[in-house]
Design goal:
The chain is an alpha/beta fold. Helices cover about 50% and strands about 5% of the residues. α12 packs antiparallel against α13 (about 270-285), α14 (about 290-310) runs antiparallel to α16 (about 340-355) and α16 packs antiparallel against α17. The longest helix has 22 residues, at about 290-310.
């Protein structure tokens, strides 16, 4: 991957390249930023620039053999580690190496893809992946060997916040005392979830969400019309992967789930039939994978916030476009200063318990009953 192929982040590109030109390549670096900002692509491109020892941001120079190996994600001195879970093919003790072919396909097809996309690719979206001690030991073993190409060797750890405590502690010594010409690139969307002792020993490069203009330009290059590109770019809220998915008409049931949920919750007070319908809805959502449930809860949080903004007369600042017949303007008056904080807290609490393997049916049932009460709460007087 080339820097010229990565959307935005011009200041970060310049800083990273300047460090290489001056011979200042920190051995342990942490790339931090939101989903859909291209952190994985940036890490691979940066590693390619360091390993291939070229100048020229556009084509990385003339080391064609090295560049070709990077394009195929098969350079023998660069290792990839990422969250995994057992699936139909790898039934026990999953480690990154066992999914290397899946990984190459995923990165080539979805270079801006999310952890949720990766789990779907593996068919494990009903599980929560992690990076365990076996992967950490493999990193150490690989980086202590002599490089095949006689130059740099390194590892890209995608989803560094999924390193369990034992794995992070095991990797710590390698970060503190790496062999010469070793590059360790950690990537995370949740900096505060990375072990503090590990995080403090890395040079951190922060990346922001992509602007609507940059996302739109990326969509236009994929054949999207200008008007649709800017509409999707605003709706994606800085996430190019989401914008691209919407452009490709990737179907998501989230809006239908949300509409059914809030409409049923609104009529459920004193209505036994509606309460039973809410329990059926809860059971349906509980039957999906945990990562799907977490994504849906994030979707709900964002949509409630969009409704609040709309209610306060700032519709121009919202980016929601219904894929069906949901009217945000009609829904917005029910989201206000009297209930928004309690609704968001309930959603975040549900996310917390889902992430910790709580009983999904009970969690969504309680959340639904809570919404039934809160959706009828009146605004606070000024």
């Amino acid at each position: 991957m080339l820097f010229s192929e990565i959307l935005g982040h011009e200041a970060q590109k310049e800083s990273l390249l300047d460090g290489v030109a001056k011979g200042r390549v920190p051995h342990a670096q942490l790339f931090v930023g939101p989903e859909g900002a291209g952190l994985l692509s940036m890490a691979i491109s940066y590693a390619q620039y360091v390993f291939c020892q070229n100048t020229g941001i556009e084509n990385h120079g003339g080391n064609s053999s090295c560049n070709s190996k990077f394009e195929a994600l098969s350079h023998p001195d660069l290792y990839f580690v990422y969250p995994t879970a057992a699936n139909d093919r790898v039934k026990s003790k999953p480690v990154s190496r066992a999914f290397s072919e899946d990984w190459r396909v995923f990165v080539k097809e979805q270079p801006y893809g999310s952890l949720f996309d990766w789990y779907q690719h593996l068919g494990v979206e009903n599980k929560q992946g992690q990076i365990g001690v076996a992967d950490a030991q493999e990193i150490i073993s690989s980086l202590t060997l002599k490089s095949y190409e006689g130059g740099w060797k390194g590892v890209v750890v995608w989803g560094a916040d999924k390193l369990n405590t034992a794995a992070a502690n095991k990797l710590l010594k390698m970060v503190e005392e790496p062999p010469e010409k070793t590059l360790i690139l950690l990537i995370t969307n949740q900096e505060d979830q990375v072990l503090e002792t590990l995080r403090s020993r890395c040079q951190i490069t922060s990346f922001s969400a992509l602007s609507p203009q940059i996302i739109a330009s990326g969509l236009i290059s994929k054949g999207c019309s200008k008007d649709i590109a800017f509409q999707l770019a605003h709706q994606a809220n800085g996430n190019y992967n989401l914008a691209l998915s919407m452009f490709k008409n990737t179907e998501s049931p989230f809006e239908d789930w949300f509409v059914r949920w809030v409409r049923t919750a609104f009529k459920a007070r004193g209505n036994k039939g509606a309460v039973l319908e809410l329990m059926a809805w809860s059971q349906q959502i509980a039957g999906t994978g945990r990562e799907t449930q977490k994504q849906f809860l994030r979707y709900c949080i964002e949509l409630f916030r969009q409704a609040l903004i709309t209610n306060y007369g700032l519709r121009d600042l919202t980016h929601f476009v219904s894929q069906g017949d949901f009217d945000l303007d009609k829904f917005a008056p029910f989201v206000h200063n009297g209930n928004i904080f309690l609704i968001i807290r309930a959603l975040e609490d549900s996310f917390f318990h889902i992430e910790r393997n709580g009983n999904a049916k009970m969690i969504f049932s309680e959340l639904s009953l809570t919404l039934t009460r809160l959706i009828h709460t009146r605004p606070k007087s000024n």
